[in-house]
Amino acid sequence: MTTEKSTLITSNDPKGIQATNLFHGVYNKLGLDEKRAQRLNENRESKFTEGLARLIMECSATDLFANQVVVSNYTYPGEFQRKPEELQIKILAEELKLDPRMALDYLRKIEGRPSVLPSGCHPQDGNIAIVSPFGLMQLIKGFKDPFDPELYCQGLLRLFEIISKERSFTNYRNGQIDSEHLRQTVRTLEACRMLANEQGESPIWIISAQLGFLHKGESTNRAREIFMPNEFGLGSVAGSSIAITHPERFVRNAELDMDLPGDEFSPDADGSFSRCPRFIFNDSKLEFDTYDVSNAVDRFGSASAFLPQ
Known about the structure:
By secondary structure, the protein is α+β, with helices and mostly antiparallel strands. It has a 5-stranded mixed β-sheet with strand order 2-9-8-6-10, with helices on one face. Strands 1-4-11-5 form a 4-stranded antiparallel β-sheet, sandwiched between helices. A two-stranded antiparallel ribbon has the order 3-7. It is built from 10 helices and 11 strands. The radius of gyration is 20 Å and the shape is globular. The protein has 2 domains: 47 residues; 222 residues, no CATH class. Strand 8 and strand 9 form a beta hairpin.
């Protein structure tokens, strides 16, 4: 998930041995009895390993943005219940006149596959249907490259039109949804190419996602910094797909709203992408706006997805 070439350290390397020795020391000091040790061993494929992986990523991250975190007690609105994947696919297919067959075939292919969501996610997080770059090509004719930056922007505007038909909606970046102002991050673009290899040219993709809860109270900077190796930020198209399939995700002021760290925004179109898009419910309507990537707000959390490992 990174474009930089670097040496990957394993537990057999000197630095890896030093880290595993830390684990040995802590384990020995805890003085687990036989029953506790057995329960820990039996939990190795779920909470223990997932929590350990997240802790390692947090502790190995730089401290550049460690102060860009605030305590948050916000959560998803009670009305939000993640719909079955088949229903999500059906909604997008009907609203956008897309063919659902490839997405349904892929859904059958992954049936029974273990979840890749880490511990700390909300119970309603999980498989989410989103419009793929190939779906955008069907919505916006004339593009040959599914990863064309301008296609992404024009496709997003089309999704905004759909949202506006269903509910009160304000785009505060009106007139600025173009490739000079808005672009996907390198990490998310790379992930989308991997998804294309996995799911093909289906106009609808299925991704394993958390919708902000895992990174609540963190700035966009901090969330991006502590992403797990297979984690990438959701962007505005994915967020719009969620708003179409799950309008009840955004229904009240006192809820955890969604930062979209898979996109970057340049307010002056000068090459400085200092802001991040977000969806917020405010004044009885859904709003799309951007905020500084250094802002940590208790009412927001960065939405992200996880590639199969």
